[in-house]
Design a protein that fits this description.
alpha/beta, VC0802-like, four-stranded antiparallel beta sheet, 48% helix, globular
């Protein structure tokens, strides 16, 4: 297998294989090719028409079927990133192929559940530390390459789940890649991912489907009702138009967390129903007010102020898991990392440099880092300085 030089490792990804060229995989490829047109990108997909369209759109420099020799050749000839953008149910076969081909580059994925893939990677890969779970929080009611677009991830959150075994440089390189296509990285502990996305993604999808079911049941013989549904109702239930097969798979992959969330939603809806039944205006008003206040507190569309960047420098012992620990603390207090660099001072020590946008609680970040045993220094950074250091 061709070995990468250290310069190539630090210069971004040059040879990328995207396995699964559906909505997410194709959109990622489109965004990457737009950001780094010099990068080679292999589209791996079972569908001949999809592979042809990938090349015609310029989103791939080459294509291969999963069982084609060209796939293995690309992997063994210096591929430095593999992106698994397939359903969880078929991931294990690809992991076995990568293991058989002695692939030593970085592997990430785009699945909306993590526990099964993490288990597969641990059992299958000879170098499991090279797998960094990922999950872009973006999508569309449109499926496949036909619905893909290069700007799908602009302003979207992209979860990365490093752990104690993740090399610091792996996280830094993936962070740079994800932010280069306009997404925002959130670092989450692996064991917390599935429960978190059940609340903010999976349960809402099934609530939207339930609302559509409710409307359909009452629409028989009432054309006016469906005309009314074309307004705000249509916007709030847009996600219910997603692929039934895909969402059925997601549901069973995250069965326990989704079931718990739906049961909790039953209780919340029951509180509203109980207040109505009891003619309890005070309780109903309080429930509505709590929801209204929380909704208003959600951040607006992300438009960071480039005039208010902040550099955080953290001297650290170069030990396993330190980057995962720092980035998780940063995400928990709502701070957004614009860029991340690791300056190795000695074999055992380094300085972690984070450039933050004007978001989150900097005071809480400082306190939490100090409580975790880190010493930190903060300094304002102009856009010109940031361009220089990155």
């Amino acid at each position: 297998m061709a070995q990468q030089t250290e310069n190539n490792r630090s210069a971004g990804f040059n040879k990328v294989a995207v396995i699964g060229f559906g909505l997410i995989g194709a959109s990622f490829a489109a965004a990457l090719r737009e950001a780094r047109p010099e990068a080679q990108l292999l589209a791996v997909d079972t569908d001949v028409a999809t592979r042809s369209e990938a090349v015609s759109r310029g989103w791939a420099t080459a294509t291969a079927a999963p069982d084609a020799p060209e796939f293995r050749a690309f992997i063994e000839d210096g591929c430095d990133l593999v992106v698994l953008a397939t359903p969880v149910s078929v991931v294990e076969g690809y992991l076995r192929d990568l293991a058989a081909w002695d692939y030593r580059g970085i592997i990430t994925d785009t699945a909306s559940t993590k526990s099964r893939i993490i288990g597969m990677a641990a059992e299958t890969l000879p170098y499991p530390h090279n797998y960094v779970p990922g999950h872009p929080m973006a999508g569309s009611e449109k499926n496949g390459i036909k619905g893909a677009r290069a700007d799908l991830f602009k302003g979207a959150y992209w979860i990365l789940c490093p752990d104690a075994d993740t090399p610091a440089e792996h996280f830094a390189r993936l962070h740079e890649l994800v932010t280069s296509i306009g997404a925002r990285v959130i670092s989450l502990p692996r064991e917390q991912h599935d429960a978190a996305v059940a609340v903010v993604s999976h349960v809402p999808h099934f609530m939207a489907s339930s609302l559509v079911q409710l409307a359909v049941r009452h629409a028989k013989g009432q054309d006016a009702l469906m005309r009314l549904a074309a307004g705000g109702f249509k916007d709030s239930t847009r996600i219910a138009a997603g692929s039934p097969e895909l969402w059925c798979g997601i549901a069973f992959d995250n069965k326990d967390a989704l079931d718990a969330g739906l049961r909790e939603m039953q209780g919340i809806i029951g509180q509203f129903a109980d207040a109505l039944e009891a003619n309890d205006r005070a309780t109903l008003t309080q429930l509505l007010a709590e929801s209204a206040d929380a909704r208003r507190a959600l951040p607006a569309a992300w438009v960071p102020c480039t005039e208010r960047l902040l550099e955080v420098r953290i001297p650290m012992e170069d030990r396993p898991g330190v980057v995962a620990e720092v980035t998780t603390i940063t995400s928990k207090v709502g701070c957004n990392i614009q860029s991340i660099e690791i300056d190795h001072v000695t074999e055992d020590s380094a300085v972690l440099s984070l450039v933050l946008t004007d978001e989150g609680d900097i005071g809480k970040l400082s306190m939490n880092l100090i409580n975790a045993g880190f010493s930190v220094s903060f300094s304002p950074l102009s856009p010109k300085e940031h361009a220089h250091v990155s």
